[in-house]
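Weekly sync, protein design subgroup
Attendees: M.S., D.O., the rotation student, P.L. (late)

Item 1: inverse folding check
M.S. brought a backbone from last month's batch and wanted to see whether the design step gives back something sensible before we order anything. D.O. pointed out we never logged the input encoding, so this time it goes straight into the notes. Structure tokens as presented (219 positions):
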């Protein structure tokens, strides 16, 4: 079986206009705008559409008061050098989106649809992708403490140069998910790894994890 690499996002924005906090609102349609050094936790961002936009040095809020991006739609958009104690963007749609140099405490992104999305040089403590649909998603040179793909559908997903501490995938459906190079200390959902690719070294390293998950005693 051939493992296919994710297809990269295409970002083709021209010269964006300066965007302000007052431009952001529920169900707003924002196109060709650049938002910098803002705290959108102060406004309602639910179901907002960002088309060909740039979000730079954004503070997505504290853990107890995160910005609410529920159902947001990002297309042809970049997020750079930002931070979020809690990144609350469930049931969102990300297409042709690139996120770089960003630190996330807890990413609440369950039931989202991601297509052609790249994370690069990001630090993520916990990423909740339960029930999400991922196609052509790449985590490049990222540090992820825990990623939760329970009940997710993932196709052409890879982690080049990244580290993942806990990989969870109970009842997930995986296709061309490239886990080569990862050395998680815990894997939950071994039986759902069908469709993933690992290398020979990982097979030896994971033998104890596989045996424990499957209830096999090795003596």
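Designed sequence read out in the meeting:
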């Amino acid at each position: 079986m051939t493992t296919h690499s994710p297809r990269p996002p295409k970002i083709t924005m021209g010269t964006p206009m300066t965007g302000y906090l007052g431009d952001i609102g529920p169900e707003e349609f924002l196109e060709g705008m650049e938002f910098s050094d803002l705290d959108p936790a102060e406004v309602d961002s639910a179901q907002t559409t960002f088309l060909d936009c740039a979000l730079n040095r954004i503070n997505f809020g504290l853990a107890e008061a995160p910005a609410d991006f529920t159902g947001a739609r990002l297309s042809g958009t970049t997020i750079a050098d930002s931070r979020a104690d809690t990144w609350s963007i469930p049931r969102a749609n990300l297409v042709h989106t690139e996120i770089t140099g960003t630190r996330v405490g807890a990413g609440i992104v369950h039931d989202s649809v991601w297509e052609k999305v790249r994370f690069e040089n990001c630090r993520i403590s916990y990423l909740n992708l339960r029930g999400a649909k991922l196609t052509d998603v790449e985590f490049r040179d990222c540090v992820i403490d825990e990623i939760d793909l329970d009940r997710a559908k993932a196709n052409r997903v890879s982690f080049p140069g990244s580290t993942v501490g806990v990989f969870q995938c109970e009842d997930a459906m995986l296709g061309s998910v490239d886990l080569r190079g990862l050395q998680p200390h815990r894997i939950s959902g071994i039986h759902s790894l069908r469709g993933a690719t690992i290398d020979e070294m990982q097979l030896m390293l994971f033998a104890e994890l596989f045996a424990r998950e499957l209830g096999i005693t090795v003596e």
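Discussion: The two ends are 33 Å apart (CA to CA). Residues 207-214 form the longest helix (8 residues).
Action: P.L. to compare against the previous round before Friday.
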